[in-house]
Amino acid sequence: MKKIPAILEELLIWIRGRFSLTGEEKLWLLIFLIICWTGLLGRYVYLKNQQPELLTPQQMEHLLNP
């Protein structure tokens, strides 16, 4: 197996250091993501179950002749 150059090893160490999180940070990030996904899922379910309403003749007239 080839050994990667020293500069790439240093780069990998630096990247891991930048993206490493403590346990508390991981917990807060998880809570934030759960809240976001709950909102997106709720919006999807709401829009999926929404029934279209028919336009009245006045609304159609207004759309055709602004």
What characteristic shape results from the CA principal axes? Answer: elongated
User: Which residues form runs of ≥5 with pLDDT under 50?
Assistant: none
Total discrete domains: 1
Largest sheet: none
What is the rounded distance between the termini? 72 Å
Give the helix proportion (percent range).
over 70%
Helix-strand string: HHH
Q: Average the pLDDT over all residues and give the rounded result.
A: 90
Number of helices: 3
Strand content: under 5%
Helix/strand-derived class? Answer: mainly alpha
Number of strands: 0
Using the CA coordinates, give the radius of gyration. 26 Å
Walk me through this protein's architecture:
This protein is mostly helical. It has one domain (6-64). The protein is 74% helix and 0% strand. The chain contains three helices and no strands. The chain has helices at 6-19, 23-49, 57-64. The longest helix has 27 residues, at 23-49. The model has no long low-confidence stretch (mean pLDDT 90).
